[in-house]
């Protein structure tokens, strides 16, 4: 009998990119979205298991193997014998022994859970193609770390290169455990940052993984990611998802009013109007305020229609275009109150010093988003700083690159030059959005702001791309639903077809 897991385990299924800026509201927004996805995932797993077992589904009796594999802390220095224990899960229930393929679900910048091998479109594909499903939690996230891992001196071992080496070691572990052939067919899946890892795993280790599905994968590192808010602006005005030119204009006007009040020194009124947890103290707190307010719209676009009724462009635009509420500024106040209420927040945390202290916190948590770890990776590999210093951005120009880079210096003592060099190295190492890989399928939604850094058109016959009209971040990774729009339904059919083609190709390889 396989070891059992408990319902108290973290339930996160799809790892989604944490925001690479200083606004705290988005982090909380994302957690709320994930909590709702957890509830839906539980129901899906119960239904799936009941259909297979012909008995009532009890989550703590669903067989899935959980374990830990000792990994080198530094794969690139074999004289360093330090290790950490990395968490994994295995679902053999759908596997056709012993020749069926292995589908690898890659973890990212959050806690992973047993549901990573029990739910999602990749699990549906495993059922169709009789695959074993395995998943690996990313180093330094969740519980895949040592007690002192978050100290500055240890964060140097947190990188995408080390993570890919973890995947190599995990593949060898599974191969030995199940006595698989050396050339056994593996296909990897990932969304957002793990989507990039999926593409890079195939790119760097084509002899170990036969193909990859990279969803919402921002494979081009970019320090000043102005394209993010260009997509947000386009989405707020897109009638396909309930946006309009009026909505976008009212958002612009509301933020212009906030900026005017900052310039006039009306910080006390701003603090009262937007329920600031503490009085606004100077420019840094004002930058945190406008970033938090922009988070509302950026988060709604990124997670458009992500289960929660109010997390959609249509719902947020219905407020911003409602003239009966009052001025656009007043509508922004109402929108902020709605988000605070829905997230169970008594006030908006706008203290810059509080944000810095949270990022400096090296204590270990067992669940949730690894905020400190992810910000470190943005400083040392990716950038991804969503700024608002050009005319396309509908928010405040106070959301500037200097503010983001100052956090790298204040928290990790990493300079502007070092961040810039790190971003350039990442693009040189992986090939940015022209990676020249093979058998990698890039899937994106055109509402998702992260698609601006991904591969959007076919790079070659074996490096195809799917761009889904009207869908957002990692939408294709969930299990099919009756409410799915037609373009998403068609995209999943294409993904299924590509996986089938690869598996047929592997038989003759």
Proportion of β residues? 5-15%
Structural class: alpha/beta
The helix tally amounts to 16
Separation of termini? Answer: 35 Å
Major beta-sheet overview = 8 strands, mixed
What is the approximate shape? globular
Mean pLDDT: 89
**Rg computed from alpha carbons, rounded to a whole number of angstroms:** 22 Å
Number of strands: 10
What low-confidence regions span 5 or more consecutive residues with pLDDT below 50? 1-19
The strand line-up of the biggest sheet is 1-2-4-3-5-6-9-10
Q: What does this entry look like structurally?
A:
The protein is an alpha/beta fold. 44% of the residues lie in helices and 11% in strands. The protein is built from 16 helices and 10 strands. The strands form 2 sheets. Strands 1-2-4-3-5-6-9-10 form an 8-stranded mixed beta sheet, sandwiched between helices. Strands 7-8 form a two-stranded parallel sheet. Helix 6 packs across helix 9 (282-302) and helix 13 packs across helix 15 (416-430). It is globular, with a radius of gyration of 22 Å. It starts with 23 loop residues before the first helix and ends with a helix. The model is unreliable at 1-19 (pLDDT under 50).
